[in-house]
Amino acid sequence: MTTTDRRSDDAETLADLLGGARGAIDATVPPVAFVLAWLVSGELWVATVASLVLAAAIALWQWRQGRKPRAVLLGVAGVAVAAMIALRTGRAEDFFVVQLAANAASALVWVVSIAFRWPLLGVVVGLVLRQRGAWRRDPALARGYARASWVWVAQYVVRVAVFGPLWWSGDVVALAVARVGLSWPLVALCLLVSWLVLRRSLPPEHPGVRHPQSQPQGQSQAA
Asked: What residues contact 91, with CB distance under 8 A and at least 6 apart?
């Protein structure tokens, strides 16, 4: 297999590994259903039921497609928590508090992972490819993952910057629109850009993410 072929396989693996657009599309359905039901009925409990029913239906479909039960249950739990918060406060916009907090926390975690030289992009790809810590012993690959991980930080920061003011102003419809616009399109863009950053960070002779190169003895790992 040539280096170009290997990198083509790696690009496909990266997109599949991090969920692609399919999971992001599924995740937008319950919030949109919540807002639409709230607008039509004016009742938060109706919106809650609508979002939970659709979340459960999507979870069942994902489970039948072979997705891990824990991931399926976490998706439903996220919608349930968001709905319960909105019911508790009586504010429809609070349905999006979980999303706002999750993106802020994710940005922080990714920054910390880069600072400690365990960039999460490398961790996730390494786990899926069953490389354990082999990628960290490859200075070029470790550096590439660190650079590409900043793309994911930027993704979360963009969401916080958009969701925050909309939530503060109580614009529920705009929050739903932003939830759709900043889900699968942003995920797809992030996958593409992070892959390009990673690929261009590797020297031309590097065989790609599937084939970490051991660090020569006596050399220190690049940050």
From this structure: 170
